[in-house]
Amino acid sequence: MSWPEGIAARPIDKGDVEAWAVLMAAKEKADQEGENFSAEDLAEHLDRPNRDMSRESIGLWADGRMIGYGIVHVPTSVVDVDRVRTEGTIDPELRRRGLGTALMRWLIQRAGELHAATHPEAPGVVGAGTSSDNVSATSLFEGLGFEPERFFFDMRRPLDQPVPEASVADGLRLTGYDPSYAEALRLAHFEAFSDHWGWTPPTPEMWRSRSIGSRAFRGGQSYLVLDGDTVAAYVNCYEWEADTEATGVRELYIGQVGTRRAYRGRGLARATIARVLAEGAQAGYQRAGLGVDADNPTGALGLYENLGFTTHKKFTDYALPLPSDV
């Protein structure tokens, strides 16, 4: 891939996180997608297990500053389709010059190469996402042959509103997260999400790094429903300090909500989220947020609306099939 004169391209490393954070702040200011990250958050991103940033990332530089980046996310396993996800951006000041198209072509090519190297036996697609009102990104994806595949809602709820009362059934216990339940929580999560669209089981190390091992995880605001020592249902919560600093609003983000199949239909998710909302308000959070698949098979969208969440923004996932002979 050749880049315009004056632009240098190389993989991202830890020495780039400060410049990367500046680029991400400019992206958020322009695109308003509700994502703010500190340099520490991005450094953690680079430290994920099973990552090879020398192969999976690219940073674009001009005049000593990062003006674009891209990352390819290769799944460690495949259930039906090898969905190789991508992310990236170009500095808003330098958009509409063909750089976004060139970056996306690099991501597509690298996704195809990594798919061929890791899961060539499965059909492959390269995925990309954007907020549904981002006209330029939508035009870019569709111009390269991507088609909409799935829709997601970003939902919010002020925490100064009354919380509906809800309780768990007799014999079950609603309790705060404790590290001693880390493995039981992982097993519950893997079962609960196994019927969700696009989900593939990560390695235990990857799961921990993205959830209970993340610097954003808030164990004190996360809750489990226990049946003896079995985690029947759970809610994992997070807080991004960079987001609070940027917005002035302290948001408790509900990152994962799950119920094991044998315990579904008993209102456990509702009771657990209700506890999260009530305790979050007491802890000084001003708002709760979450993301949900519009076609979630468990009826999660209706549950969240019933608990007072409203849709703040809509996102679209796009997909482009990868040729089998890459």
Task: Describe the secondary-structure layout.
Elements: E1 8-10, H1 17-31, H2 39-46, H3 53-56, E2 57-62, E3 65-73, E4 82-90, H4 99-118, E5 124-131, H5 135-143, E6 147-158, E7 173-176, H6 182-193, H7 204-210, E8 223-227, E9 230-238, H8 241-247, E10 251-259, H9 268-282, E11 287-293, H10 300-306, E12 310-321
Parallel strand pairs: 4-5, 10-11
Antiparallel strand pairs: 1-2, 2-3, 3-4, 5-12, 6-11, 6-12, 7-8, 8-9, 9-10
Helix pairs in contact: 1-2
Written description of the protein model:
- The structure is a single chain.
- With 326 residues, the chain is α+β, with helices and mostly antiparallel strands.
- The chain folds into 2 domains: 8-151 and 316-321, Gcn5-related N-acetyltransferase (GNAT) (Aminopeptidase, 3-Layer(aba) Sandwich); 162-307, Aminopeptidase.
- It is built from 10 helices and 12 strands.
- Strands 1-2-3-4-5-12-6-11-10-9-8-7 form a 12-stranded mixed β-sheet, sandwiched between helices.
- Helix 1 (17-31) packs across helix 2.
- The longest helix is centred in the N-terminal third of the chain and has 20 residues, at 99-118.
- The radius of gyration is 20 Å and the shape is globular.
- It starts with 7 loop residues before the first strand and ends in a 5-residue tail after the last strand.
- The mean pLDDT is 94.
